[in-house]
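haha ok so turns out i had the wrong file open the whole time. this is the CORRECT one, sorry everyone. sequence first:
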Amino acid sequence: MKRKHIYVLIVACIILVLAYAGIKFQKPSSGESELSQKLNAFVEEALQKELFPGAVLLVAEKGVILHRRAYGHARRYDYGPVELPRPEAMSPDHLFDVASLTKVFATTFGIMLLVDRGEIALDDFVHTYLDGFAAGEKRNIRIRHLLRHRAGLASWKPVYYHAANREESLAYISTLPLRYPVGSVRHYSDLGFMILGYLIEEITGTSLDRYLAENLYEPLGLARTTFNPLDRGYKKLVATSHGNPFERRTVADDSFEDRCDEDPGAFQKWRRYTLRGEVNDGNAFYAHGGVAGHAGLFSTVDDLKILTDLLINGGSLGKQAYIRPETVAAFLQSGLGWSRNPRFIRAEGAPEGTFGHTGFTGCNVVVMPQTKIVIILLTNRQHAGVGTGGYYPAIDQLRRTIVTTVLEGIDLLHSSPLTCR
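then structure:
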């Protein structure tokens, strides 16, 4: 038998043995990994179901990007919503309104920096810095309580019915009675992170956005993370809602979401246009000029990855240390700002120590420190408008599916004897 035929026979035998053992050879149709192909299929299916007009998804492991892709449109509709004749395609460079991710990528980092520099302590009482919290049971609220959503505050109030700026908002929130005993149970609260924003400004003597820009974003080279991006000339901006229909109904309809005592007709400044570069959240926009501790940050998938890398690496990037590792550990291990509840972040099955957060506009981040895996999904789920029930499309199942697919895909990648990376 000729040598060439022997080689062919040997290769054929190897393939048969591996096939029998359950190892499949797949030829990528587009040069993408099997993991990327699966993730693309799930996101494309969500687009077809009109869960959102556009999205950007990034998956990384140990700093290496395994998947990074934009889908659909950054802007597809005008106020109404009415379909645009020429929709704007989505790209990874587009800035998203990350909604409540502001709580972790802005405010929590701001408090972390102050703690790291010895300017405050987590167990300091809030009234030490903000006089309005010196009376009654509110006197017992510590900074730690606010970060853990255990200060006893209401989850939400339409602050803009009572205040038109930061000073008036602080004064109004200071008068609100507590809903629950301080430190008792976790009740997620926007108001608590508004207070943390005021606290940062009081201690530093500068605005929240400026403090973060000078002490975190600019030193890290984050050129596309900011508040009020329209004021700074950004052009690639993802469109969100058409006015504030969800909040308007929340105020007007006592059977819908949070019960409000406010007169629906007492506020006449509702926006009647498609939001693009303006924060969707009413309290951030109407009562804080776009800069608040609970909402208002805009960013890109790449900039958010850098911030998660900073946490995974214990406060350092490359050879540069920005925050001490013990400070980062104290925040992450105690669930300060970030959530460690797998059900809340839709990461059931993730390793112990996984943390993350979600945002109302359709954004979420999941970080697994044990394996150094990062998943960032940014969508504009509000942009097609609310459904007949008054709610925006639910994307929790997609979030869970992505986490499960990433865990299975990376596990398979590492367990395969043929893996080459």
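The CA atoms of residues 3 and 9 lie 10 Å apart.
again sry for the mixup
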